[in-house]
Amino acid sequence: MHRDVVVVGGGIAGLAAAHELALAGRDVLLLEASPELGGKLRAREVAGVGVDVGAEAMLNRRPEGVDLARSVGLEVEHPAVVSSRIWTGGALRPLPRSLMGVPLDLDQLDASGVLDRAALDRVRREPSLPPSEVGDDVSVGDLVDARLGPAVTDLLVEPLLGGVYAGRARRISARAAVPQLVAMAERGSLLEQGAAMAPAGATYAAPVFAGIAGGMGRLPAAVAAAVRAAGGEVRTGATVRALVRDGGGFRLTVGPTTAAETVTADAVVLATPAAATARLLGEVAPVAADALGEVEAASVGVVTLAFAADDVPELVGTGSSGFLVPPVEGRAIKASTFSFAKWAWVREAGAGAGVVHLRTSLGRHGDEAALQAPDERLVEVSLADLHAALGLRARPVDTHVQRWGGGLPQYAVGHLARVARVRAAVAEVPGLAVCGAAYDGVGIPAVIGSARLAVRALSPH
Fold first, then answer.
1. Reduced to 3 states, what is the DSSP secondary structure of residue 243?
2. Amine oxidase domain location, by residue (predicted)?
3. 3-state secondary structure of 351
4. Does 371 map to a domain?
5. Residue 207, SS3?
6. Quick one: which of 177, 156, 181 has its CA closest to 437?
């Protein structure tokens, strides 16, 4: 079988690339190894209600995600304007306005009670520091430690970064993860610039986040349908085991060794995780393969809990969308999201069944052993932490545990240089491109953006 373009990987990156290629009139085949499309976008029924068990939101202020959703006929919804809290020092405290945990409002920070007096005094001295000399790169934690003190890193930055990257602040690249923070530090005071950037009482026309009515898990199927409608082919259960050059194009070995199929293509887009991409690039772009082999990944788990609404009056009407947990607190969970309070569609769907849904997330880089416990254990440790944080004693009427093994690539210090090496090596192979969460950001819009870069990088048709 010969195709114009083969896209390997059916997560949102691969689907977005295939969608753009198909709309451009390319003869595209998408191959996904697992039985299900979507990668980290997935929905499951919990207490009879379909809810997200993977990514539940995307940035709204970056357009790629909402544009793709609308282009395939899905209705975009924004979360309720409710507060988030942080569980530290034995209490749920208001989460101060911040840039990835770096405080932007000293009065809010003081009132929150997150920091003790000595740590607050250290923060207040930050404007007297000279601009930071970041150099090639630095970890987020080291940059924040130097300017604001380690308590800000431990209690505010770590829980925010843990939610996005499931990583460790003192290992994650500042230039890759929070470039705005680096630019601010190189100019001078973070606090002074932060206060000017987000003055107290400021309101913004565009919501920060967006979702899809019915769940982000609807997006993969809708994009796949659009690919097929445009003449493309989408296959699941099709593992690509090898990729080699074949004249001016490529030869892919697909399927089990006992029944391998050969597919040839003029161009290939690899939209697979870093480790899988490294394996496939071993022969065609060994320098890129070596660089991608350096990218580590974190495993995470999402526990979804459905409670009878009448059993949890302490949750309903709190005006909160959930809470974050700093790792120094030593808890099992790193966050809890009150899905029913955050998303109108979840609340309405649950009301019909007399239930409310919330979820906990577990797992940071290096914590893989904790996630190896049975599902029942992850449910119980989640309930124990919810009881300690909220006084919640009710038992759920239904649960679901979703594990994402190696699901989040880690942007270690030097990540941007590493990605540049990968792309330079891949660019030396005509008709080859890469995309996904391992390159320019782990959020949905960033991943879609990387897919568009990959499509543009292909040799002209």
1. strand
2. 12-458
3. helix
4. yes
5. coil
6. 177
- The count of structural domains within the chain is 3
- What's the CA gap between 458 and 269, in Å, rounded? 8
- The structure tokens listed for 54 are 């993977």
289/302 same-domain check: no
**H-type alpha helices, 330-440:** 339-342, 344-353, 375-390, 415-427
Residue 333 sits in a domain whose CATH number is 3.90.660.20
Q: What are the structure tokens assigned to 253, written together?
A: 């070995």
Question: Is residue 461 very low, low, confident or very high in pLDDT (cuts 50, 70, 90)?
Answer: very low
Report CA 417 to chain centroid distance, whole Å: 21
Same domain, 424 and 390: no
User: Using CA atoms, how far apart are residues 193 and 198, in angstroms rounded to an integer?
Assistant: 9
Task: Note down the domain range covering 338.
Answer: 298-408
* Same domain as 305, residue 402: yes
Please indicate whether residue 395 or residue 81 has the higher confidence score (pLDDT). 395
Q: How far apart are CA 412 and CA 418, in angstroms?
A: 9
Question: What does the pLDDT look like over 249-306, one tens digit per residue?
Answer: 999 999 988 888 999 999 999 999 999 999 999 999 999 999 999 999 999 999 999 9
Tokens 């009881």 map to which residue?
387
CATH of the domain at 151: 1.10.3110.10
Q: List the CATH number of the domain containing 443.
A: 3.50.50.60
The helix or strand, by DSSP H or E, that contains position 244, with its residue range, turns out to be: strand 240-246
On whether both 258 and 314 belong to a single domain, the answer is no
Q: How far is CA 313 from the centre of its chain?
A: 31
* Residues 289 and 433 both lie in one domain: yes
Rounded CA gap, 325 and 156, in Å?
Answer: 9
Cα(39)–Cα(21) distance, integer angstroms? 19
pLDDT digits (tens, 9 = 90+) for 316-360: 766 789 999 999 999 999 999 999 999 999 999 999 999 999 999
Confirm if 330 and 278 have CB atoms less than 8 A apart: no
- Token digits for 143? 């940059």
CB 227 within 8 A of CB 455: no
**56 in a domain, yes or no?**
no
Within a 10 A sphere around the Cβ of 132, how many other Cβ atoms?
Answer: 19
d(CA 243, CA 284): 7
Q: In this structure, what DSSP letter does residue 62 have?
A: S
Query: What is the rounded distance in angstroms from the CA atom of residue 429 to the CA atom of residue 374?
Result: 45
Condensed to tens digits (0 to 9), the pLDDT of residues 34-65 reads 999 999 999 999 999 999 999 999 999 899 99
Closest by Cα among 182, 91, 92, 100 to 135: 182
